[in-house]
Specification:
seven-stranded parallel β-sheet, 323 residues, alpha/beta, 10 helices
Amino acid sequence: MRATWLATVWSLDWPSTKITETGNSAQIKAQKDQMIRILDNLASVNINAVFFQVRSRCDAMYKSSYEPWSSDLVSERGKEPGYDPLAFVVEEAHKRGIEVHAWMNPYRITTSGTDVSALSADNMARKHPDWILTYNGAMYYDPANEEVQQYICDTVKEVVEKYDVDAIHFDDYFYPSNYPLPEGETREGAVAQERRDNVDTLIKKVYQTIKNTKDSVEFGISPMGIWKNSTSDEAGSATRGSEGYYTVYGDAKKWVEKGWVDYITPQIYWEQGNAYADYETLVKWWSDVVEGTDVKLYIGQGIYKDSVAKEIAQEMQVNEKYN
């Protein structure tokens, strides 16, 4: 597996131009040409999988019965672009021997803004305001809500059924980061555990949905690089960084042990010798977690950081030491 994330939120990696008029052939060609340049570039450096962000804020880079077209694709959320980017990416990537993992953010509705009326009329959050959590100036779907869980499974099923994707991919966004607990509750208390159970339930349901729809499609998650520090739990890593188990209520170690994912891609976005989170310490820890399971381990690297980019060759050599 030699993969890259291809981010579309805020048009980070693609597309650099939006479609302002449905079916505008010049604008569609510009987007397609840019994607072909990206895929050709990836193929030329031996990348064999692209994790293409298709649902970043409960919107879609594909023709969806559930989500409006993404405002990162078109000038106005919900406007028809005149072609289907996911279908195009699948076709072009597969021609080049590149897998497509459809990357979806399950709960995030907005990255900023809490005005439901600002959402497009067909947005599920606007139809179901009772599904929403707001925190830190943004909106999220409530992971405790069973209708939300079903809706996310439905969006996943639609992609698996309609497109020849190789996998569904979630990243590290679960509960809002550091979402506060009620007064008197602790991070090991009943409410915190209930939140982890809610996320666990979704992960298990999504895995079952994928397998029941098309068994060959994989499910992978790229959680925060630290599950727990050893100061919190002797089973944790010898690190001192932010812990996914407490920060976003994601018990990634459990997902591996239960076999609710086909692969895990921890975001080990640090350099070797980092005082809080040493790279090799974490690679070895995750390698031990997957040992004896059928779950594959891929390491997520933060080459947007200069400190990581300049030692990426050495990090690859570290990876080769572990299964």
